[in-house]
């Protein structure tokens, strides 16, 4: 058991140690203030011209903002005392950022620096030159406790109370960072190299989301310049989830990371669609169909070009045009191919001009490429197209679909794809979420999609193959962190293996597993795990760090109101998770009883202690007290309803109350 000292309540706390650490905190704060004052005193006037001045001023402002001290956020949370033997300092304080004094002596070292790694990884078996690790406990911004772990030979370390207190702390508001308590297996993932794509399978509450966000912060610190150019992006399941995680990266000093949803990335199309149709549209076989559909628009040229200049006519014969088109097909994307066709035709005209003794230059070639006869031919042979035009034809014209699908889709699948009632034109078409991925694939066949430096994809098990391809395009010159849980797959096209997910993403990567839960009490997790044999038979039952005896209550015929009132008597957030169809009724019941609450919507960043949450929006979120209403209805509402129930049952941090009138699903009572 580590030494754990709390002052002033514990009489034997050596307050001199605590006082010395508090003094170091005060010194570090003072030094940070001085660093900020210095940054504020720098002037952008030194820059030569006005534009450079503006750019420099922007950078200086950013630096000043980054050096702000947030009194409630601990400046450091750990200390390493190191054995001599290298030229590193013998004492290191690990915190959220570097702080140094006037002589450049480091007072606090960023948690992401290589030397800080030992704070997360050192153990008596492998002390990494550390003789003692000290963890600090804070109350508000005040340093109130410390805990020592001896790592020198023969040292024994037990469970950390500071970690336990951290994970037991009631949840209020948005997700917090876990920088002070990252666990060794999580740290391995956080610090894996930029070139490496990692895929993390993890049971509910094992910290996948937290790890993904910390990895983004780590990579930005380690490859600042490169990633500032290419960019890092976080992709999550919906806006409610994004707003829940939105403060983590800013708390780690990283404000320039885009956080978005697949819809935010591919287009907010949401026309309702039969899941069976969406499943065909999401299948990777569609990639071939779209490729053919696009290139079917390039037709065999039957005519040549005649370009008239003054009294002369320059002719490119039909067979020459055919040769040019044939040589371009398959070697270029669609849009540059079109431009190249015009240029190649113009070049042939120029060759004829030269044969006549003229000496035309590049400008003439451009003018010929833009001339009417060339444009007319290009439009006829290699027409200008948008993704919407191509997809419209595919979903509206059975013969065109059949030509594009060949044997890749069965006649039944083709039948399913066609709109039952076609729209009048591509302009009036209403696209679905699955269409968005198809449009994106077509857009990439036309023009290359730029790649980011790194992509973090959360809840990746729910993405269709075509959506994964779309995300893969956005990291094809970079790498990815892929996070998810096969047991929480709730879409009809949910992944069954991570290898397949990586293949569709176009990334080679290792699959690792996080197995220890930090959220859900053991009793609740064991209860939810009864569903696992039915939804993901290959996965081992999850383990929880938190015993949580008495955390589970199942009430047949129970009242939601009574459960809510009970929860209101305790500390922390409350989520009443109901089948989507019952949300209004549940909210009405609460309102009828005068209980202030909010209803979580797909786009809402509702912050309220008492929230009514539709079951389909609960993924990724957590509440201290969860009340699950009518599990049987949650299961019956969708094809993968049991997986949805598993998600819903695993949102609780402290207590889970299940209230039901209908019989519980058999898998839960078995
Ligand atoms: N090392 C840690 N120290 C303290 N808290 C942690 C740690 N790891 C995870 N947590 C906490 O556990 C909770 C669950 O983490 P997170 O949401 O990242 O899990 P997840 O694996 O993404 O869960 P789910 O699959 O259910 O979405 C969060 O409150 C997170 O802050």
TrEMBL record:
Transmembrane segments: none
GO CC annotations on file: cytosol
GO BP, sorted A to Z: recombinational repair
UniProt KW Glycosyltransferase keyword: no
Entry-linked InterPro entries: DNA_helicase_UvrD/REP, P-loop_NTPase, UvrD-like_ATP-bd
Keyword Cell inner membrane (UniProt): no
Every UvrD-like helicase ATP-binding domain range: 181-521
Annotated binding of ATP, by residue: 202-209
Keywords per UniProt: ATP-binding, Helicase, Hydrolase, Nucleotide-binding
Top-level lineage group: Bacteria
GO molecular function: 3'-5' DNA helicase activity; ATP binding; DNA binding; hydrolase activity
Protein name as annotated: AAA family ATPase
């Amino acid at each position: 058991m580590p030494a754990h000292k709390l002052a002033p309540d514990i009489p034997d706390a050596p307050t001199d140690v605590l006082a010395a650490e508090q003094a170091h905190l005060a010194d570090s704060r003072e030094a940070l203030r001085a660093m900020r004052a210095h940054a504020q005193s720098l002037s952008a006037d030194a820059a030569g011209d006005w534009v450079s001045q503006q750019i420099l001023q922007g950078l200086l402002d950013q630096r000043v903002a980054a050096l702000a001290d947030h009194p409630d956020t601990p400046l450091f949370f750990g200390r390493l005392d190191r054995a001599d033997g290298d030229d590193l300092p013998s004492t290191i304080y690990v915190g959220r950022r570097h702080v140094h004094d006037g002589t450049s002596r480091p007072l606090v070292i960023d948690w992401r620096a290589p030397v800080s790694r030992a704070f997360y990884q050192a153990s008596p078996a492998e002390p990494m030159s550390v003789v003692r690790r000290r963890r600090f406990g804070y109350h508000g911004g005040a340093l109130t406790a410390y805990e020592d772990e001896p790592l020198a030979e023969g040292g024994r370390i037990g469970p950390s109370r500071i970690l336990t207190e951290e994970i037991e702390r009631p949840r209020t508001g948005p997700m917090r960072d876990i920088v002070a308590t990252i666990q060794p297996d999580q740290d391995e993932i956080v610090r894996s190299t930029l070139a490496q794509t990692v895929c993390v399978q993890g049971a509910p509450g094992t910290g996948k989301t937290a790890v993904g966000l910390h990895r983004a912060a780590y990579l930005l610190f380690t490859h600042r310049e490169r990633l500032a150019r290419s960019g890092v992006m976080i992709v999550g399941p919906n806006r409610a989830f994004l707003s829940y995680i939105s403060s983590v990266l800013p708390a780690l000093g990283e404000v320039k990371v885009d956080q978005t949803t697949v819809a935010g990335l591919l287009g907010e199309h949401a026309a309702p669609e039969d899941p069976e149709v969406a499943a065909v549209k999401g299948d990777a076989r569609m990639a071939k169909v779209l490729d053919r559909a696009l290139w079917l628009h390039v037709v065999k040229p039957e005519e040549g070009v005649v370009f008239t200049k003054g009294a002369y006519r320059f002719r490119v014969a039909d067979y020459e045009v055919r040769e040019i088109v044939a040589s371009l097909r398959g070697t270029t994307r669609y849009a540059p191919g079109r431009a190249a066709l015009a240029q190649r035709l113009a070049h042939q005209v120029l060759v004829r001009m030269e044969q006549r003794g003229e000496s035309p230059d590049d400008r003439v070639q451009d003018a010929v490429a833009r001339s009417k006869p060339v444009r007319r031919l290009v439009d006829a042979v290699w027409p200008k197209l948008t993704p919407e035009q191509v997809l419209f034809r595919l979903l509206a014209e059975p013969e065109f679909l059949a030509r594009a699908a060949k044997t890749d889709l069965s006649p039944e699948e083709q039948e399913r794809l066609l709109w039952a009632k076609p729209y009048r034109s591509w302009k009036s078409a209403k696209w679905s979420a699955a269409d968005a991925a198809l449009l994106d694939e077509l857009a990439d066949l036309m023009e290359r999609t730029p790649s980011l430096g790194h992509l973090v994809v959360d809840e990746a098990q729910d993405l269709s193959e075509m959506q994964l391809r779309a995300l893969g395009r956005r990291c094809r010159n970079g790498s990815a962190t892929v996070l998810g849980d096969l047991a929480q797959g709730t879409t009809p096209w949910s992944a069954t293996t991570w290898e397949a997910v990586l293949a569709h993403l176009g990334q080679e990567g290792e699959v690792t597993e996080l197995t220890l839960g930090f959220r859900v009490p053991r009793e609740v997790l064991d209860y939810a795990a009864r569903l696992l044999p039915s939804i993901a038979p290959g996965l081992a039952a999850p383990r929880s760090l938190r015993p949580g005896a008495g955390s589970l209550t199942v009430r047949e015929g129970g009242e939601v109101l009574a459960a809510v009132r009970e929860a209101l008597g305790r500390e922390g957030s409350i989520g009443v998770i109901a089948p989507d169809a019952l949300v209004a009724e549940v909210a009405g019941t609460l309102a009828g009883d005068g209980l202030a609450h909010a209803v979580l919507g797909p786009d809402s960043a509702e912050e309220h202690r008492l929230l009514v949450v539709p079951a389909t929006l609960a993924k990724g979120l957590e509440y201290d007290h969860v009340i699950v209403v009518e599990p049987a209805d949650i299961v019956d509402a969708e094809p993968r309803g049991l997986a949805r129930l598993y998600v819903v049952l695993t949102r609780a941090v402290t207590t889970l109350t299940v209230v039901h009138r209908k019989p519980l699903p058999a898998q839960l009572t078995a």
